[in-house]
Write a structure and sequence with these properties.
Distance between the termini: 19 Å
Radius of gyration: 13 Å
Helix content: 25-40%
Structural class: alpha+beta
Number of strands: 5
Largest sheet: 5 strands, antiparallel
Shape: globular
Strand order of the largest sheet: 1-5-4-3-2
């Protein structure tokens, strides 16, 4: 079962996010906010260059990142460029988010 989530990276996310931190980067903060009450207690969000993973208490879901999100993360982590607010959609899948 796949479900889509619209993620909006805001100026607040950019100002408070931590570069090179997969749990607290601007994209991770925006994903946490977008999922809101859907995240059970104990869940952990991790964002990498090509996927987002939500580790739930008893399973995990993942979504490939669109190129715009990967580019944003790369520019922030590698160049220190905080970029501008933007939005993207994640389509969640169950199981491990391994690169095929």
């Amino acid at each position: 079962m796949e479900q889509a989530t619209l993620v909006r990276v805001t100026p607040w996310d950019i100002a408070h996010g931590k570069p090179r931190n997969c749990h607290e980067c601007p994209a991770a903060l925006a994903i946490i906010r977008a999922l809101g009450d859907l995240l059970p207690e104990g869940s952990v969000v991790a964002v990498g260059g090509y996927r987002a993973v939500v580790f739930l208490p008893d399973s995990e879901i993942w979504a490939p990142l669109p190129q715009s999100a990967g580019n944003f993360i790369g520019a922030l982590d590698e160049l220190g460029d905080p970029g501008a607010p933007f939005e993207f959609t994640l389509t969640w899948r169950r199981g491990q988010g391994r690169r095929s």
